[in-house]
Amino acid sequence: MRGIFVTATDTNVGKTVLAAAICAALAGRGKKVAAFKPVVTGTDEEPDEWPRDHELLARVATIRQKPSDVAPVSFGPAVSPHLAAEMAGDTIEPHELAAAARSSAESADVLVAEGVGGILVPLTPGYLVRDLAVELDLPVVIAARTGLGTINHTLLTIEAARAVGLDVAGVVMTPWPDDPDEMVRSNKSTIERFGNVEVVGLPETSPDDLATAGKQLPIDQWMGTSGPDL
Asked: pTM for the complete prediction?
């Protein structure tokens, strides 16, 4: 199974936009792309200019996925998945999530899987986003903010991933400004140095221009391939 697992330093960092940009860029090459997000919460809230996470990912996937195919589990309240399930009186079966991801990937060239919040967010009381990433065994790309505080948050996320043997393929700071100031440039270089990882920027984009943004990302390098043929 080829693909990328997109995680983040926190919630609302730009993880879904990054995952969608990767999907759109690969789709632009004519690749069959499957998207997967184990759980979506907050569906009770009205979306802004961006669609809900699973709706956006379904839009850019190329294997005719419905939003419910992308995210097999969803809840209304905007809380952590384990709490959302408890509030709903439901039980999330962790290994069914990994099975659903693999099933989506069967008819695709590439699977772009996105976590929920940060890498240590519980999907169930005993199963973290990190555990799902281990089961899927895909290279990990971390979405991170550009501003103050991002160095600590990003380095902690890198350490948490590597502690269980995950391959941290890259960090993407988003949205990357057109004219980054000294602090933003220093944040990037500092994370690269202490995290021993390549850091790139994803410019601000829109739902209709994701492919353009995604083309700027080193997707083949992340997946360990040498060119666009995967």
From this structure: 0.95
